[in-house]
Amino acid sequence: MNRRFTMLAVLALLCAAVELVAGRGMSPGVVWDVLGGGGDATERHILLQLRLPRLLVALGAGACLAVAGLVLQSALRNPLAGPEVTGVTPGAVLGAVTATALGLAGWESPLAVVLAACVGGCAGAALLWLLAGRGRGDAAQTAVHGVLVSAVLGGLTAMVLLVEPGELGSVVQWLVGTTEGRVWQHWHLLWPWALVWGAAAWLLAGPLTLLRCGDDIALAAGLSARRARTLALLCAVALTAGAVAAVGALGFVGLLVPHLAVAVFGADLRAGLPGAALLGAVVVCGADAAAQLSSRLLAGALDSERLTLPVGALTACLGAALLLVVVRRTPSRTF
Predict the structure, then answer these.
(1) Total-model pTM
(2) What total number of domains does the chain contain?
(3) Helix, strand, coil shares of the chain as percentages rounded to 5?
(4) Other Cβ atoms within 10 Å of 11 Cβ, number
(5) Backbone phi, psi, residue 10, to 5°
(6) What's the rounded Cα separation, in Å, for the pair 112 and 228?
(7) What sections of the protein cross the membrane (predicted)?
(8) Strand partners, 109
(9) Cβ proximity of 148 and 267 under 8 Å
């Protein structure tokens, strides 16, 4: 087990190194020179004030989404449950876009955007809580109501776009998900949130493992399934809101990375949850590096310096393909 964690940590460092040199405007030699204390003021600003916080935000958001997804799949006993099933992702997007349209927030004020996204995410979770009613402890009903809540919030986001068509750029960035333009303020807001709620999720590893086995077994072991599931959903909501507030709605990370974590680390969530965090960080960081490299190649081929491929577009395309494989191989799996 320790060997697997070590290999993942090395892979994360490798992805981080690739991402630092993947962007346009700086060669690997210049990046190495700046890291060694050299380089001119412009090069130091690009690397230390733009690329490094972008890298850290990608790692943190990936870890949050992966842990949230594993918590949801364990609590709801549904291998196709993801952060979207709580209504938090579309709620956070709606909050950020609405605040931007009203002039209360903007990309130049990360704190305002993060707060608006967190408020929207919590509102989405509260709407799910109200709709679920007495069926809150039922995994299937919670998942169904989550899909309905997500559809409603997505429709409201479309309405905001109709009222304020000038906010199309903000809507696309939040719906697709991107690490572009992330600065140190985003990281300083993300890491304490991720640390607190990640630790809370790890403390729930035992109850979540029992919930994966079924409510009857959990009750036989003296665990209140409804209370444990509520606490687990709270952790998933908080982790998802923090990630979406930082990078937008990265598709399929919270849905598919937990499957990899279970395959690599087994059913014991005391190892699975930290493993999922590492895997999520590797996946998002690697995808962001690939997106930057692809942007460079496409910009050269199309002779367009402003062409940028958002990381969310890459994770959505790859995630959709992998989801089809998962569904075809396990059509009736419910844990």
Answers:
(1) 0.88
(2) 1
(3) 80, 0, 20
(4) 16
(5) -65, -40
(6) 32
(7) 55-73, 85-105, 111-131, 143-163, 190-211, 231-256, 307-327
(8) 106
(9) no
Return the structure tokens found at 111: 């704190």
Q: How far is CA 209 from the centre of its chain?
A: 22
CA distance 2 to 25: 38
Instruction: Show the domain range for 233.
Output: 1-78+168-324
Residue 123 within any structural domain of the chain: no
Tokens of 272: 């699975």
**Within a domain: 128:** no
* CB neighbour burial string for 34-63, b if at least 16 within 10 angstroms, e if fewer: beeeebeeebeebbeebbbbbbbbbbbbbb
State pLDDT tens for residues 29-50. Answer: 888 888 887 778 888 888 888 8
Q: Give the contacts of 204 (CB within 8 A, at least 6 positions apart).
A: 71, 228, 231, 232, 235
Q: What value, to the nearest 5°, has the Cα angle with vertex 114 and ends 109 and 117?
A: 125
pLDDT digit string (tens) for 191-236? 999 999 999 999 999 899 888 887 778 788 888 888 888 888 889 8
User: Would you call 72 helix, strand, or coil by DSSP?
Assistant: helix
